[in-house]
UniProtKB/TrEMBL annotation:
Its cofactor is FAD. Coiled coil: none annotated. Pfam families: FAD_binding_2. This is FAD-binding protein. InterPro entries: FAD-dep_OxRdtase_2_FAD-bd, FAD-oxidoreductase_2, FAD/NAD-bd_sf, Succ_DH/fumarate_Rdtase_cat_sf. Residues 11-431 form the FAD-dependent oxidoreductase 2 FAD-binding domain. SUPFAM superfamilies: FAD/NAD(P)-binding domain, Succinate dehydrogenase/fumarate reductase flavoprotein, catalytic domain. Gene3D superfamilies: FAD/NAD(P)-binding domain, Succinate dehydrogenase/fumarate reductase flavoprotein, catalytic domain.
Amino acid sequence: MSGDAQEAAVDLVVAGAGGGLAGALRAAQAGLSVLVVDPDEQFLRGNNTSMSTAMVPGAGSRWQREAGIEDSPERFVADIAAKTHGTADPALAAALARISAPLVEWLADEAGLPLSLVTDFAYPGHSVHRLHTVEGRHGSTLLRHLYDRVRSAPGIDLLVPARLIDVERGAGGEVTGAVVEDPGGHRETIPTRAVLLATNGYGADRELVARHLPEIAAADYHGGQFSRGDGLRIGLRHGARAAYLDAYQGHAALARRSRTLVGWATIMHGAIMVDRDGRRFGDETTGYSEYAAALAARPEARGWIVLDRRIHDLCLPFTDFRQTVDAGALVWADDLDTLARRTGCDPAALKESIAGQAAQAGGSADRDAFGRTFFEEPLRAPYAAVEVIPALFHTQGGLAVDGDARVLTEDGSPVPGLFASGGAAHGISGHGAGGYLAGNGLLPALGLAWQAATALSHTHTHAERHEHS
């Protein structure tokens, strides 16, 4: 195997170099020895953390206080309950909401992330501005900062490429080793007292997707190629319970031509989505995740986001949107007849869609025919349109965990020394796609990894005290 791993036993093996790096760094800061393994040599750009828009919720953070925004974990939990119609795990939602502000402050102060609060538009479901991000609003920047800190931290080694394929357990059921395999098939057992499954979900396993997520199974998968359910399978093999396997984050704004993310900021600034014929088919502001299935159900499972120059300029802070523009995915026109011709939409249908947007934005209607209540301004020429297709970004169900990220068995007891985070763990998005809130991917990815390391360090400290007592 390549890498700089040591033969000696380590306190923690982290499987997955995405959000799991937060756990590795947190553990090392507590004096624990850590080994990170990942099968992807290109993990800095190839996993779901790096592909995200780097939005991390923090309810009650210092950035919110500086902006005069009143927020709390309780308000965040209420938003989660509202978005999921009460189907999210209340205990996990409360635990993640409680640590969300300490997490983002730790990311800034200890992990060196240059975070700022997003206040230029509101994401669906969040009742206040609570999302924090980095410049460029792209996960690759976030992950690079974490990686740089991990590489300079004493006590952390990386083994890449290497894939965790199993854990070994002692007579008492506790984790005693991590079985890793290199691309050539060579296996090695790393003695350890804890393993964090930070391997993401099962979005890259088409069989599992078809079984659990049939409504989105035909859509493009836009996530890490190694998100194959490894953590889920390992946990189930050792008696763990799975939960919310039907939950996922979809996205209705993947540009068809460039396969880049257009981003829902376009919608929240006043853009609309129409199907291939130019007809709107719902309230886009309900959320980009559930809208993926709505788009998938339209003719040929494709549509157009229609925007204007104002919205275009407002979305330029997003790296994903700039990449979409640079790829030439936007079609521009000085009038709607020309836009209809260039997109292949029915001119009458497209004009009707734009007229409905203008009526609501102009204040002549409280809500449009689909129930949408807010447009910033009417769309004005020149118009732009980008063809979009539905996509599956990542799954939101996995191994059942508690608030300390401990993997739970069918009877609710933890598997000693086994933790899970991110897509390997069950999330807080309820069932299906409709409960997904922006940040519901990164908060469990970073937060549960961070919390697992915190819990392990407390156990380690207690054990040391016991030994010396």
